[in-house]
Amino acid sequence: MISATRRVAAGIQDLIARDRVAPGGRLPTEHALSRRFRVSRPIVREAIQTLKTLGVVESRPKTGLRVLPFDPGPLFDQMIPRIRTGEERAELYEFRCLLEPAALRLVALRAPRERLEELERMLRAPLPRGRAAVREGFARDVAFHEGLWRLAGNRFLWSLRGLLVRYFADIGRNVPEAVVRRTNAQHLAIVRALKAGDLNRAVRMLNRNLGTFRPNGRKA
User: Fold this and answer.
1) CATH number for position 194
2) 128 in the same domain as 112
3) Is 218 inside any structural domain?
4) Residue 56 pLDDT more than 60?
5) What's the average model confidence in pLDDT over 12-41?
6) What H or E segment, with its residue span, contains residue 201?
7) What is the pTM of this model?
8) Which residues fall within 8 angstroms of residue 166, CB to CB, at 6 or more apart?
9) Range of the domain at 32
10) CA 50, CA 212: separation in Å to the nearest integer?
11) Strands (DSSP E) along the chain, which ranges?
């Protein structure tokens, strides 16, 4: 049997859809929602908290309850703490290897040349030496992959960045400086292939790049 909290949370989402409440639009007060759904205000608060966690609404003093722009990212990010085993990491890695080359095809279709040039300038800048190179290299790694995912122009793809980009960056920081430099060079080659209109080369280089941080747990 569905709980009262889940029923109210679903009811509020139905209300948003039925009344076409735009992002930033206000919703009824807790008291009004309590009367509408015939439940206590604590249950309404629990339902609102559920929707806050999902990134559906926000509430602020004096402004009340408002609808947030659609972003499935928080929902995907909730999966990250539940990834515990090597097999789970390997399966997630497989998913990324299937998805990111497809995203690159969207980038080739949609990315303005000036945005690719911005990525190229970032990657072309000299890296420092030692541990500073590793820190800078990882920051560039995240910026590069997130930059590609944003340029793909698909909100569902972009919302997976925490799960499929930052997650692997966070678990792969202890690598030699030489690997970081090689990775940066691969990223630069990918961007230059995209600028040249050579999508096949860009995809080959991306697949090689993704293989650098293959997790243990499942055979390739």
Assistant:
1) 1.20.120.530
2) yes
3) no
4) yes
5) 94
6) helix 199-210
7) 0.76
8) 142, 146
9) 4-70
10) 38
11) 57-60, 64-67
Contacts of 11 (CB under 8 A, 6+ apart): 36, 37, 47
Whether 219 is covered by a domain: the verdict is no
Q: Per-residue b/e over 24-54, b at no fewer than 16 CB within 10 Å?
A: eeebeebeebbeebebeeebbbbbbebbeeb
User: With 50 as the cut, is the pLDDT of residue 220 above it?
Assistant: no
Nearest one of 178, 166, 180, 179 to 135, comparing CA atoms: 180
Q: How many CB atoms lie within 10 A of CB 16?
A: 18
Q: What is the pLDDT of residue 215?
A: 72
What percent of the chain shows pLDDT beyond 70? 96
In a domain, 220, yes or no: no
For position 216, what pLDDT does the model report?
A: 62
Confidence of residue 189 (pLDDT cuts 50, 70, 90): very high
Among 57, 51, 54, smallest CA distance to 69 is for 57
Average pLDDT, the chain: 91
Both tokens of 162, joined, read 């925490």
Q: What span, in angstroms and rounded, lies between the C-alpha atoms of 165 and 168?
A: 6
* 125 φψ region: left (φ > 0), alpha (ψ -120 to 50), beta (else): beta
